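Feature request disguised as a bug: please show the residue count (526) next to Cobyric acid synthase in the output. Example input:
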Amino acid sequence: MKNINFSGKAKCFMIQGTTSSAGKSALTTGFLRYFSMGGYNSSPFKSQNMSLNSFVTDDGFEIAVSQAVQSEAAFKNPIRQINPILIKPSSDYNMHLIVEGKFHGNMDFNNYNKKKNYFLKKAKENFEFLARNNDLIILEGAGSPAEINLFKFDIANMGFAELYGIPVILVADIERGGVFASIFGTVKLLPLKWRKLIKGFIINKFRGNLKILDPGIKSIESMLKIPCLGVLPYIKNLRLEAEDSLNLINHSGNGSSNNLTKSCKLRIGIVHLDHISNFNEFDPLFFDDRIDARFFKEAPDRLNELDMIIIPGTKSTISDILSMKKTGIFDYIKDFEKYGGVIMGICGGFQIMGKRIKDPFHIESEIDAMDGFGFFDIETVMKNEKKVLNQRYLLNLKNGPHGEVLGGYEIHNGRTFFVEGYSGENIYTGLFEPVETLDNPSSAENGILSKDKKKIGTYIHGLFGNGIFTNFVVDIVKENKGEAYNCNIETDSCSYDAVKNRNYNLLSENISKYINIDLIKDFAGI
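Example output, currently without the count:
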């Protein structure tokens, strides 16, 4: 790629990792909070992100959630320019492609690579927009820069850094083992022109006595002629909204420090679907002392092992119904419903709770139609037009919270309708009434609650970020347990936003304490 002469005012540097989940997103978030608190008008940027967790900006554009988090850490509202290309895998070979915040189409990876120049052009346009309007841009790479089979297609790591001469910091996760080999191997696999862009490395997630690392650090510095910028300690219970399902491995229970036994908590199981999307919206449950939340990929042994099941969003609804049938989860949920457990479906999970899902245009699957659970008298048809909204909703309940304003967002191709002849006798409709739009409040898409309060369905993501809604769900589960629930656990009174801000500040403090900021400022010209 040819270097670009560009006069944008912003200084910049890029965080790349030796592997996926090395800590690129967390470090980018921490650096943005650190420099923003220091008075720099800062912005994140990731040219290409592959993630099933997305966020809807205030003006209705879809971007990766990690860039939204980073923007928040920089005290800014997320905008579409910070993540111009979002790849949402729909199968092993195909993707749902978002370009500049809008649905671009379904595509296989070979065709995507053939159109690399078009996507690179979009990435450059958006980066240059940010460079004209910020003091500092902190870029995040994707995966590893040393994927030698993908060098010629690289528009997210060294290929992009080379265009603008952007200095690169390499981060490696010591918790995985082989940290020095991963640093050495990554650097040595790169062409010499790319190696020259690496100005330093950071070792992440270290536990123990730092002196043990000193000989290895000195050796790798000598071999590569690249300085170590610092060693960051492992931060227990740090949770940032994650990009991919690798992070679900650590979401096996509540990381709260509350000493009360888990038997005293409400047990909420979230189905870990093969194509699960927007699973970051459940993070508030893992911080709630009243809740023992966990993801599960196999049917639990007993019906009384859970108090509530959530069927989350999915990028391939029909495929995930088939997967649930293979694992036994589908039958388990049917039995759980008969047993009287509380069930909630969000987006694709809401569709699955209905009678039937139709995909006549094969938006998500090659299968034309599939039956769901039939818990609600609704059916869903997949459409080419995608509904993307970030707005406020009124929570409307009979004998419960009424008129409370909740924040949330919608991202779905499916349109859901009540089946012909439904009576509505056993359900409440219009559970969530949009404030800004003119949708019919009685529409199936505005949420359904069964009159026994044991089944909830909605298209709205992000509801658990609203304490009012979480309290409503907790009360439903408590009521359903009846005398079996005799505990009185109060959750932390602070909001989830406050929890996130504490994490951003903690990352910033660790960077200030353990990282050679002066050297970074020097090579980045800050």
